[in-house]
Each structure stands twice: as C-alpha cells, then as structure tokens.
Amino acid sequence: xxxxxxxxxxxxxxxxxxxxxxxxxxxxxxxxxxxxxxxxxxxxxxxxxxxxxxxxxxxxxxxxxxxxxxxxxxxxxxxxxxxxxxxxxxxxxxxxxxxxxxxxxxxxxxxxxxxxxxxxxxxxxxxxxxxxxxxxxxxxxxxxxxxxxxxxxxxxxxxxxxxxxxxxxxxxxxxxxxxxxxxxxxxxxxxxxxxxxxxxxxxxxxxxxxxxxxxxxxxxxxxxxxxxxxxxxxxxxxxxxxxxxxxxxxxxxxxxxxxxxxxxxxxxxxxxxxxxxxxxxxxxxxxxxxxxxxxxxxxxxxxxxxxxxxxxxxxxxxxx
Length: 320
Ligand SMILES: [Zn+2]
Known about the structure:
By secondary structure, this protein is of the alpha/beta class. 40% of the residues lie in helices and 21% in strands.
C-alpha cells in the first residue's frame, strides 16, 4: 500500500479525473461530459461523481489530497471560482470548500493553465528547470510562469494571462475588453477567422476543401493540415500566428528571463510550422542576454498536463 493523489481538470466540455502515485505514475482515470449549459449544480454533481470513481479506484490506499484545475478567473488561495466564460451560471462558487466537505480530504484548486505549467515543471519537459513559462494555444491562449521554482501568482492569484498582453494597439477588441490581445491574433478561432477572410477575398487554398469534406466549419486544425500538405495560404497564416506569439514570447523573456518556454495546446500540434516563426521572431527581436540560453520547446504532457499539474499542486502544498 502506498500513498496516492487525485488530480482533476474541470473544462467547459469535459471533466476529467485521475489517480496517481506520489511519483506521478497514472494509475486510473475517468472522463465525463461537463454539461456546462445545465448550470453549476449539475456540473458540481458530475465533478463529485468523477472524483468518487477515483476514490473507489484507490481501494483503501491513503489519499493525500485532491488537486483540481478549473478555468479562471478563480482565487487559488480560497478555491472560489468567479465567473468563467465557458461555465454559464457560475458566480463565486466555493468549489474547494464544497469538495473538501464532500470528501473529507484536503482540496487544492488552481487555474488550469497555471497547473499545466506546474505539471510540465514537475513531470514533463520542464523537469529540473526552475525558471520557465508555459503557453497553451487552443480556443484561447493561457499560461503559467514558474520563477525560482515556484508558480508566480501575483497579488490576486491571476498572474500568467499571457494571451491578454497587447500585441497590436490598433487591433480588434477581445472579449476581455482589451484591444489587440495575443489571443485575438493567434488562438485557434483567430487562425480560422483569417482563413475565412482570405477565402472570402478569393485566395486559392485547400483549407475550405478539407473542411467541406468533413461538413464542418473551418478550424485551426484544417489550416494546420493544409499547411502540412504545402498549402501556401495555410503556411502564411500559421507563420503570422507564430510571429505574433513570438512577439509575446519576446515580451515575456524581457520581463521574466526564463530558461525554457514551453508551447502546448491543440494549436501547438502544428509543431515546427508554428515553432519556427516563434523562434525566428525571438532571434530577431529579443535582447541577446535573454535569448542566448533560452530554449523554446513543445509541451510533453499534452492534454494531461493539467492533471499532472493538479498532482504537483497537492505535492507542493504538502511540502513534498
Ligand atoms: Zn484579451
């Protein structure tokens, strides 16, 4: 018998939970649709069900705690979730305390992208690197900053919103209220939007054909696939996204001086098509001392980074 930890990830479409040993080996897992549109009570019930399966899977081994990643904004010290855009009806839900009462276990809650940074730092490509920045690029752009081996939280626990730094002061308005955010320039929906705009202008591309074959609207994934096949427009769009991300990375290098920048999230599946323009932009724009020893690499833990990060959070809260 050994000690175990439960990690969980509350997303807008899926709730996932997993059971780990203290060295980060995954022992069991469970996933349920979130059913976010049915409101907080239904979602809470499903989180509890998902966690209960892992308690059962522990088969009486001592559970040290539960770590949970959730969409921000949230308070990482109180575990209260404010009003996440992808969880309708949620307003100041005391998620940590509700789960602690239900399971009689220590519960720790963190922003999902922050936890993914912790996961890559403890168990992934950032192992042994105490100054790193993790950036996730999917429907939005989020991140986490590890400085001196610790997660950088800021005064309100909200630090690391790398996707909401302004890249274009004359850019379009983001749903966050700011203008020209990295997210409106380079996240998945921005990539799809740029493809649609180019097609509407009459540019030749295979992107539309790929989407039509699946009877789905154009997504960043179609752009990525067309780029793999050598499609010129698709490559231009990804290069443009990579350049904008690169400018964001340059800002982060100058502010935080990390040794490692980890690029994750679904859009990052484009691999070198995205990483090459990011690295090139960093070489062109960053001051020498900041770019000399920094590596820019793909994430190692994929979709599971947040689950591993939830375990890392429990371990660090327990001083292990
Ligand atoms: Zn924004």
